[in-house]
Amino acid sequence: MAIGVRRIGGEKSWFCHLHHFLSTSTENAASSISDIEGEFKSLCSTGRIKEAFNAYNAEIWTDQHLFSYLIQSLIPKKSLFIAKQLHSLVITSGYYFKDKFVRNHLLNMYIKMGEIHEAIAFFNAMPMRNIMSHNILINGHVQHGDLESAINVFDEMPERNVATWNAMISGLVHFEFNENGLFLFREMHGLGFLPDEFTLGSVLRGCAGLRASYAGKQVHAYVLKYGYEFNLVVGSSLAHMYMKSSSLGEGERVIKVMPMRNVVAWNTLIAGNAQNGHSEGVLDLYNMMKMSGLRPDKITLVSVISSCAELATLFQGQQIHAEAIKAGANSAVAVLSSLISMYSKCGCLEDSMKALSDCEHLDAVLWSSMIAAYGFHGRGEEAVHLFEQMEQEEAMIRSMPLEADVVIWKTLLSACKIHRNADMATRTAEEILRLNPQDSATYVLLSNIHASAKRWKDVSKVRTTMRDRNVKKEPGLSWLEVKNRIFQFSMVGPHGAKNALGKCCKKMFNMNHKDVIDYILVSQIKSPSNCITFNLIDEEVEGLMDTAPAGCRARNRGYSGVGA
DNA sequence: GTAGGGTTAG
After folding, report:
1. Would you state the pLDDT for residue A121?
2. pLDDT digits (tens, 9 = 90+) for A45-56
3. Distance, angstroms, CA A31 to C1' B10?
4. For a tag site, which of A53, A229, A267, A302 has the least CB within 10 Å?
5. What is chain A's mean pLDDT, rounded?
6. In whole angstroms, what is the distance from residue A224 CA to residue A212 CA?
7. Within 7 Å: CB of A178 and strand B?
8. What is the CA A35 to C1' B1 distance in angstroms?
9. Pick the residue with more confidence: A3 or A546?
10. Which bases on strand B have an atom closer than 7 Å to a protein beta carbon?
11. C-beta neighbour count of A518 within 10 angstroms
12. Which residues, if any, are the signal sequence (predicted)?
């Protein structure tokens, strides 16, 4: 590694002044060592490095702690040039050979600055390494996305501590090698290492990734045994594990017994409800969170916007959009892509397009959201055009997650339906079902395509496969939004009209439109927060939509999934 | 007392 104390290039170096003080400063400060350290630390941590350096240029040479603070303060500056100058000063001071803290701080500095090659060279040249040095390097490799190198360091270590195991487990789980992470946890525990809050957080994330509630329950036992149930991070990851494994109630219980909640705990609760089909409760939770004095972050907003999309509550979606603008979170890609989906599902494709145009940096999920929005509105050609545009970006295709592939295939299936191409539809549907065998919308769409081509044998084959695989079709739903309330209608088919509810609605349908609305307002059949559900047959929904008064928004979402 | 790790989302 090339290290020089002299000035390099045209950049001005304030370290150069050091040599002057090295030979001239003999003054002894009146304040105690701990006072100096405190002041120096505070200057460094607030980024006032020059000030710290100028005020304590003499003390730096007699107190190795000050070098450590100085090294840490350089991390956010992200300047390899200045980092190397400080590195050379550390060598000049003699602390590089004398002090293991200073050495590890330097290693950590290169890693945190993203300079993995400098870090590796530094590690290889280190005169002495301890467990900490190895742990820092493992984390560096993981941060750089190089799990193999991380594993090599881990395997070759002469001695390990809990943090070593934590670094390796969290690295594996981070890259979704969840099973390997859990195996490592078992090995670690077998060797007598006790899990700490860091271990438990990673292991629970691994269980969540595997939807492994049985393993998760065992980890829950460890959480209770070692007394981490009220730890905010452990509690949130434990609740998340349950909620990902479809045990919403168990997850809620974990959060509810916690004496304190932070934004992450609230987000876990809100996202858990949103993802388990409890969108109605999400807005209530969101309001409770704000009432407790916490500000929503982009993760909160994403979950709440998705719930508005699920319920097609346009007005509330717009309110949250306004809050996102106020919070300055409206340029975050995650928030924008959920806004695109929300506006699309609420029937406002133009607003989806507007949200897309607000975005400065496009990523794969964002493109997919807009492609799906076009597909959702039956605008297959625009969807394909956007897909072609996206194809231009090489990097974009490579970074595409699995979900995006499904979206693209489903968009193509939608186009097959419009163009009545049954053969291509069959091949496309096979591709989708290979990726997601439980996708009910694809079965329904494929069955309809076969039906319109009068291929009855194929229709029956699709239906049989659906039954065999126990695929549940989501009901088609329509909405009527009146004064910030949502009236939701599910189509139950000709037989459903015979039930009492159907009769009741039929009666309602024969009223004039003012009476219809009044009737709806007083007859809450199902009343989660602001949503009322009626079961109607298709014609009645159409008829009811026609009676909607001016200024009231009526939308028909059609069958859930692709197409319209 | 000067060094390293964990959780939530589109």
Report:
1. 97
2. 888 888 888 888
3. 54
4. A229
5. 81
6. 18
7. no
8. 13
9. A546
10. 1-10
11. 11
12. none
* One-letter amino acid for residue A356 of the chain: L
pLDDT digits (tens, 9 = 90+) for A92-114: 999 999 999 999 999 999 999 99
Q: Does domain A362-468 have CATH number 1.25.40?
A: yes
Q: Where are the beta strands (DSSP E) in A324-438?
A: none
User: Which pair of tokens denotes residue A244?
Assistant: 């990902």
CA atoms within 13 A on the CB side of A533: 13
Q: Report chain A's C-alpha Rg in angstroms.
A: 30
Q: What is the rounded distance in angstroms from the CA atom of residue A110 to the CA atom of residue A120? A: 9
Token output for A323? 């809050």
**Mean pLDDT throughout A364-379?**
91
**Which nucleotide lies closest to A34 by the C1' atom and the CA atom?**
B1
Q: Quick one: how far is CA A271 from the chain centroid?
A: 10
Asked if the model's pLDDT at residue A367 lies above 70, the reply is yes
Task: Considering chain A, tell me which residue range(s) the CATH 1.25.40 domain(s) occupy.
Answer: 362-468
CA distances from A203 to A132, A141, A248 (A): 22, 20, 19
In sequence order, what are the beta bridge partners of A545? none
Residue A492 dihedral angles phi and psi, to the nearest 5°: -105, 5
Distances (CA, A) of A434 to A90, A178, A416: 58, 22, 18
Q: Tokens 């300055």 identify what position?
A: A328
pLDDT at A334 over 50: yes
